[in-house]
């Protein structure tokens, strides 16, 4: 049984091989330092990230954002803090990635360390690893271009901030309304968790937008319709390029290989100050003691680091009705049963995924059969159908794409043959006159021969 | 014979001697036919040639491995992806079964030959059979001498060699034998009126139907001949016995072949035989009535029947025409229609016109393929009219129709070749007979011209024996022609012993010197023919086309083995279930040699599918990627000859991709690719041409070879030199760049922002191509 999994995260080559490679390396120290990573490295079987590299502009962020970092640590991540321009910076060694996730809390960095550049970060993503990018008003071109490569366009005006004169966060001083209390969340339990985020999220930073045609990127936190992106300290000379709810404050992108990326225009969002402070939206009367930031960030990072919303489909099986062996080929009009198991990663183990909208296609250039799979609530999905009266090379296709979930796309090829020469009906009732005719002719010919030969 | 005792004895002896001699001559002809076809094995290697033979080889392998029932029911899922192909029902099984049987017999005799070896040598073996069948056919028409001559000519006629060299494992290899043998049995039945031969004839016809679609030639030619005989008042019971069982049994047997099935009674190609079948019964009935009625009564009956019959006939014809006309192709398949109207295919069916062997031949190809026979055929036709018999009228009809058909399709030159050989055999044999008789007469005239009548037979004996002796000597040097002449003469004497014939013969006497000179000229002609045939066999028709060779100017031999290199790469470096797209020419080879699934192959049964591939090749990269991706294609294979000057590459075939693609998907418009009515790839080329996938895949990185991108086939510099591929990546290019294999890149992992490119890269790949076509092309 071929295991087909939608989790296409590239597996680190193989542990044995890696270990063998390490064995020959001269640095024994390195082995010791790497062994724990090797043991806990993420794989297709446990997709949650373990080792995360955090790049900072300076180490003061470690303390100013300590709540965020310690919450990650308490969830079991190994955080590795480095300065963004650390010359010894490297994402991979000997062709193997050292980290499963990358957090870029270094908005102003113009160049990374020697071994890291834009392409290296993108390769990191393209090999299935996750990324969190936080920018702010000082965002460098490098950070912006990383975002662009991921489908997110930051406002091109370097001095622009998101300004909202209606839904700003009420504070003691009047300010310039750049600290926003945003509560326009994406409606998805998968991404933001089942518990509703009551309090608005405090945001202070730059705006970005997503092209509507981009099917991979999502706005998780949008600005209110009254927001716009402009330089707060200067007078507005022309209409701002980004306005209203096209402005995205926090976006995520799930790449085709299921790598997840979070991009936000505000580094302050993660700060202890924002986590702790109370919040009151200027438009509403309710004052919350604590902003929604901590819950929002915690839930979103759970999604980013694959603790939620990661599906796999395994054990595709099919056989003729009443048999158990999987045939190499079906005949047209056969009745068959189809099984597939779908599981969701809970952060610790694979739990059965229960849904009533998974479908299987029996596909040859276009779907000939489309059936909704029924589930036994334990992850096993199943259906029966009749092979269409068309021969050819078909595929069982399960395409399952739901908001927030990794996309499941698996196909299994199966040829369908026509009837064999002896599988047709031998005698057809409607043809009995013809049978009669031929036998009558034969008898007639026989009698005629006798009459002709011996009746002289 | 009205001769004395000793003459009689001499005649008997001569017969025995002659029979033994003909037997050995035939044996040598068979050996010659076999050996002359082995040049390809000696010069290259024992390898299957070209394209279709690879499919036949693969089918034969399947047959020997899985048995006949699995072969019959074989559904092949490795070709025509994703449609698949029912091989058992779409293939003429004759060749495969023949080779499979030979292999099986050899193996049960503990001769462990590989299937490939058997396949390679099937064609030469059957050429020997074909030359023997030619002997039999011509012997029935004009006697043993003509038979031997015709057999020797057929053994080495270049047209037939081109289709039957060792390794050319194609249907025609056995079909030509079956064709000639069927004709022989028909003539034999016609001459003897034996029902036994008639039954054999139906069986031979069955074998022919099994072997080749060209069987329709038989089932139309024989009715034509029967009709001719009836019209010329040559109706006889022998004719009836030759024809009626053939139609009844033959049609029943033909319907047993899965690929023919109900076509045997439902397509227009077979209607002629049924019509003539009705006519011959009417005629037979009329003759019967004529026999039992008095002449006066008969006349009355005729007027009655004719008037009633005409009405009935008109009614039947009207119904028939209405029925046939109601079908879109008028009941004729495209190939047959293009036979009747040579311009039909190129006008309406580009897929038929795109095959080079379906093009009309050029004049030089007649000289190349049948050489001196072209000059001898008219003489043979004349000889057939002296006197005209049922049998000789058949061969005349055969040559006339086959000349016409060969003019339509170069492939049908193959059908002409046996007819030309028969005719030339008759011509040569008759002329030798005339000249030697003149010489003999003159010699006797010198010695004593007093007794002509009585001396004729005895002197001919002497000369014949002299000739035979001479022949035996010359046979060691593989020159059979003089001996055949002697055989012919004996036969001639036996056939025409009447006084009248002798008088005629005396009238035909030519001057001695002229006869000697003419014989010398004929021998010279034959020698030229032999030289040409050996040259053609050795040089022109032995190339397996899977391996190419060329001579460098210093005389060294250079071998281009790129095709096998590419197929080996595919079979070693790709997954078993990967799909490889290429133009259909290379489909059979890819499945047989690389064992990979192909989208289209040389069995061009689904025009739309081929058009899809043609459209992909003529589309820009992105559109092509979408088409290929929707077909689950992993690799694209193109053949490129620009580096080494291999002319039959994909760029030269590109016009057919455009035409076939455009025939189904109208957004591909041929004028977009043409500049001044030509497909150009130089700087004058149209942008559509320079951006289409075929151009890009062919010339990708080509400029790196010589710095300026000079195409040696088109003799020009290419138009667009430096470009990158965005949706395809080159994975393999063979040593001489003749085969280039590209892999489809997966869809991009991320979608960039701020780009001007359309972003829905892969979201729409699953939509059908037709709707894609209409979307992309708002004008249609």
Automatic annotation (TrEMBL), chain A:
Q: Which residues form a coiled coil?
A: none
Membrane spanning stretches: 432-454
Associated pathway = Protein modification; protein glycosylation
Q: Could you tell me where this protein is found in the cell? A: Endoplasmic reticulum membrane; Membrane
Membrane topology recorded in Swiss-Prot or TrEMBL:
Single-pass type I membrane protein
Question: In what residue span(s) does the OST48 middle domain sit?
Answer: 318-456
Q: What's the superkingdom here?
A: Eukaryota
Keyword vocabulary terms for this entry: Endoplasmic reticulum, Membrane, Transmembrane, Transmembrane helix
OST48 N-terminal domain: residues covered: 51-304
Q: Which family does it belong to?
A: Belongs to the DDOST 48 kDa subunit family.
What function does this protein fulfil?
A: Subunit of the oligosaccharyl transferase (OST) complex that catalyzes the initial transfer of a defined glycan (Glc(3)Man(9)GlcNAc(2) in eukaryotes) from the lipid carrier dolichol-pyrophosphate to an asparagine residue within an Asn-X-Ser/Thr consensus motif in nascent polypeptide chains, the first step in protein N-glycosylation. N-glycosylation occurs cotranslationally and the complex associates with the Sec61 complex at the channel-forming translocon complex that mediates protein translocation across the endoplasmic reticulum (ER).
Assembly, in brief, is: Component of the oligosaccharyltransferase (OST) complex.
Q: What is this protein called?
A: Dolichyl-diphosphooligosaccharide--protein glycosyltransferase 48 kDa subunit
| Species this chain originates from | Hevea brasiliensis (Para rubber tree)
From TrEMBL, chain B:
Supply the EC number(s).
2.4.99.18
Domain called Oligosaccharyl transferase STT3 N-terminal: residue spans: 20-423
- Cofactor (UniProt): Mn(2+); Mg(2+)
- Keyword annotations: Glycosyltransferase, Magnesium, Manganese, Membrane, Metal-binding, Transferase, Transmembrane, Transmembrane helix
The protein's enzyme class: transferase
Q: Where is the composition biased (Basic and acidic residues)?
A: 469-483
Q: Which residues cross the membrane?
A: 12-36, 86-106, 118-137, 143-161, 173-198, 204-228, 240-265, 271-289, 301-325, 366-386, 393-410, 507-531
Spell out the reaction equation it catalyses: a di-trans,poly-cis-dolichyl diphosphooligosaccharide + L-asparaginyl-[protein] = N(4)-(oligosaccharide-(1->4)-N-acetyl-beta-D-glucosaminyl-(1->4)-N-acetyl-beta-D-glucosaminyl)-L-asparaginyl-[protein] + a di-trans,poly-cis-dolichyl diphosphate + H(+)
Domain of life the protein comes from: Eukaryota
Q: In which pathway does it act?
A: Protein modification; protein glycosylation
- Which intervals hold domain STT3/PglB/AglB core? 577-636
What's the main place this protein lives? Answer: membrane
Which Pfam families does this UniProt record tie to the protein? STT3, STT3-PglB_core
Region annotation (Disordered) maps to: 462-493, 748-780
Q: Into which family does the record put it? A: Belongs to the STT3 family.
Q: What is this protein called?
A: dolichyl-diphosphooligosaccharide--protein glycotransferase
Organism of this sequence: Hevea brasiliensis (Para rubber tree)
């Amino acid at each position: 049984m071929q295991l087909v999994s939608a989790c296409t995260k590239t597996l680190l080559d193989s542990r044995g091989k890696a270990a063998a490679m390490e064995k020959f390396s001269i640095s024994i120290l390195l082995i010791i330092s790497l062994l724990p990573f090797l043991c806990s490295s993420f794989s297709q079987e446990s997709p949650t990230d373990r080792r995360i590299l955090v790049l900072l502009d300076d180490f003061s962020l470690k303390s100013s954002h300590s709540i965020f970092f310690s919450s990650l640590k308490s969830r079991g991540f190994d955080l590795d803090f480095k300065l963004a321009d650390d010359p010894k910076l490297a994402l991979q060694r000997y062709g193997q990635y050292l980290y499963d996730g990358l957090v870029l809390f270094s908005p102003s960095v113009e160049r990374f360390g020697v071994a890291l550049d834009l392409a290296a970060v993108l390769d990191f993503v393209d090999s299935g690893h996750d990324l969190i990018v936080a920018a702010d008003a000082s965002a460098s071109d490098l950070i912006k271009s990383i975002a662009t490569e991921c489908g997110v366009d930051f406002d091109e005006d370097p001095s622009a901030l998101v300004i909202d004169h209606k839904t700003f966060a009420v504070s003691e001083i009047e300010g310039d309304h750049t600290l926003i209390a945003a509560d326009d969340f994406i409606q998805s339990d998968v991404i933001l968790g089942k518990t509703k985020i009551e309090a608005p999220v405090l945001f202070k930073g730059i705006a970005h937008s997503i092209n509507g045609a981009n099917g991979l990127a999502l706005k998780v936190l949008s600005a209110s319709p009254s927001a716009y992106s402009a330089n707060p300290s200067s007078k507005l000379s022309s209409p701002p390029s980004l306005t209203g709810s096209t402005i995205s404050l926090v976006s995520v992108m799930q790449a085709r290989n299921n790598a997840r990326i979070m991009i936000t225009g505000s580094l302050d969002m993660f700060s202890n100050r924002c986590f702790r402070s109370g919040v009151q939206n200027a438009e509403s009367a309710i004052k919350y003691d604590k902003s929604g930031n901590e819950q929002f960030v915690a839930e979103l990072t759970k999604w980013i680091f694959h603790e939620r919303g990661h599906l796999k489909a395994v054990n595709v099986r099919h056989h003729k009705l009443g048999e158990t062996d999987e045939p190499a080929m079906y005949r047209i009009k056969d009745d068959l049963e189809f099984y597939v198991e779908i599981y969701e990663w809970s952060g610790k183990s694979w739990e059965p995924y229960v849904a009533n909208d998974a479908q299987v296609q029996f596909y040859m250039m276009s779907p000939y059969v489309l059936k909704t799979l029924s589930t036994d609530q334990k992850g096993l999905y199943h259906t029966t159908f009749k092979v269409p009266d068309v021969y050819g090379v078909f595929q069982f296709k399960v395409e399952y794409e739901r908001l927030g979930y990794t996309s499941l796309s698996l196909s299994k090829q199966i040829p369908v043959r026509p009837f064999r020469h002896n599988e047709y009906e031998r005698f057809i009732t409607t043809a009995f006159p013809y049978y009669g005719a031929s036998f009558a002719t034969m008898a007639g010919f026989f009698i005629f021969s006798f009459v002709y030969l011996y009746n002289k | 014979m009205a001769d004395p005792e000793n003459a009689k004895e001499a005649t008997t002896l001569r017969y025995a001697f002659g029979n033994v001699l003909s037997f050995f001559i035939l044996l040598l002809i068979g050996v010659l036919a076999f050996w002359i076809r082995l040049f390809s094995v000696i010069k290259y290697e024992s390898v299957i040639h070209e394209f279709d033979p690879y499919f036949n080889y693969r089918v034969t392998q399947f047959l020997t491995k899985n048995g006949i029932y699995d072969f019959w029911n074989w559904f092949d899922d490795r070709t025509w992806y994703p449609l698949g192909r029912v091989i058992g029902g779409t293939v003429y099984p004759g060749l495969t079964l023949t080779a499979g049987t030979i292999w099986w017999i050899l193996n049960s005799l503990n001769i462990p030959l590989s299937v490939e070896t058997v396949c390679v040598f099937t064609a030469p073996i059957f050429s020997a059979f074909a030359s023997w069948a030619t002997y039999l056919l011509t012997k029935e028409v004009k006697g043993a001498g003509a038979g031997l001559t015709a057999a020797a000519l057929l053994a080495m006629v270049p047209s037939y060699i081109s289709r039957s060299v060792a390794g050319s494992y194609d249907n025609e290899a056995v079909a030509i034998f079956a064709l000639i043998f069927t004709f022989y049995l028909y003539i034999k039945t016609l001459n003897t009126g034996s029902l036994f031969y008639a039954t054999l004839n139906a069986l031979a016809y069955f074998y022919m139907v099994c072997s080749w679609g060209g069987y329709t030639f038989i089932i139309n030619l024989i009715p034509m001949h029967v009709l001719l005989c009836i019209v010329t008042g040559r109706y006889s019971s022998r004719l009836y016995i030759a024809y009626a069982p053939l139609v009844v049994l033959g049609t029943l047997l033909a319907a047993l072949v899965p690929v023919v099935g109900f076509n045997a009674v439902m397509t227009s190609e077979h209607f002629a035989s049924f019509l003539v079948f009705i006519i011959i019964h009417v005629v037979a009935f009329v003759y019967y009535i004529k026999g039992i009625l008095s002449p006066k009564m008969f006349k009355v009956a005729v007027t009655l029947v004719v008037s009633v019959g005409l009405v009935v006939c008109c009614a039947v014809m009207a119904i028939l025409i209405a029925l046939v006309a109601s079908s879109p192709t008028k009941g004729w398949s495209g190939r047959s229609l293009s036979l009747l109207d040579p311009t039909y295919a190129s006008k309406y069916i580009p897929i038929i016109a795109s095959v080079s062997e379906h093009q009309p031949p050029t004049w030089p190809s007649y000289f190349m393929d049948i050489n001196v026979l072209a000059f001898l055929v008219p003489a043979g036709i004349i000889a057939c009219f002296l006197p005209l018999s049922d049998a000789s009228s058949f061969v005349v009809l055969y040559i006339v129709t086959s000349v016409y058909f060969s003019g339509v399709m170069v492939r049908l030159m193959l059908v002409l070749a046996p007819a030309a050989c028969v005719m030339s055999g008759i011509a040569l044999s008759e002329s030798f007979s005339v000249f030697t008789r003149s010489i003999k007469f003159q010699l006797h005239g010198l010695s004593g011209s007093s007794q002509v009548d009585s001396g004729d037979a005895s002197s001919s004996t002497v000369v014949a024996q002299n000739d035979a002796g001479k022949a035996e000597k010359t046979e060691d040097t593989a020159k059979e022609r003089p001996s055949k002449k002697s055989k012919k003469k004996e036969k001639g004497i036996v056939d025409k012993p009447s006084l009248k014939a002798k008088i005629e013969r005396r009238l035909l006497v030519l001057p001695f010197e002229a006869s000697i000179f003419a014989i010398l000229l004929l021998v010279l002609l034959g020698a030229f023919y032999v030289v040409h045939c050996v040259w053609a066999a050795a040089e022109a028709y032995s190339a397996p086309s899977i391996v190419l060779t060329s001579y460098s100017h210093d005389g060294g031999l250079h071998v281009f083995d790129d095709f096998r290199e590419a197929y080996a790469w595919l079979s070693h470096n790709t997954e078993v279930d990967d799909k490889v797209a290429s133009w259909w020419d290379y489909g059979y080879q890819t499945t047989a040699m690389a064992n990979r699934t192909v989208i289209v192959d040389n069995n061009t049964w689904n025009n739309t599918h081929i058009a899809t591939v043609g459209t992909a090749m003529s589309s820009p990269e992105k559109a092509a990627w979408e088409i290929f991706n929707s077909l689950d294609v992993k690799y694209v294979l193109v053949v490129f000859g620009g580096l080494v000057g291999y002319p039959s590459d994909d760029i030269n075939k590109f016009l057919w991709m455009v035409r076939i693609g455009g025939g189904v998907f109208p957004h591909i418009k041929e004028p977009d690719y043409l500049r001044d009515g030509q497909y150009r790839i130089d700087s004058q080329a149209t942008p559509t041409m320079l951006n289409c996938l075929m151009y890009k895949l062919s010339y990708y990185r080509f400029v790196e070879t010589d710095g300026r991108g000079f195409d040696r086939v088109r003799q020009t510099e290419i138009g667009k030199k430096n470009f990158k591929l965005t949706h395809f990546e080159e994975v393999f290019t063979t040593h001489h760049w003749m085969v280039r294999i590209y892999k489809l890149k997966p869809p991009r992992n991320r979608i960039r922002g701020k780009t001007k490119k359309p972003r829905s890269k892969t979201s729409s790949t699953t939509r059908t191509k037709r709707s894609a076509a209409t979307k992309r092309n708002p004008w249609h």
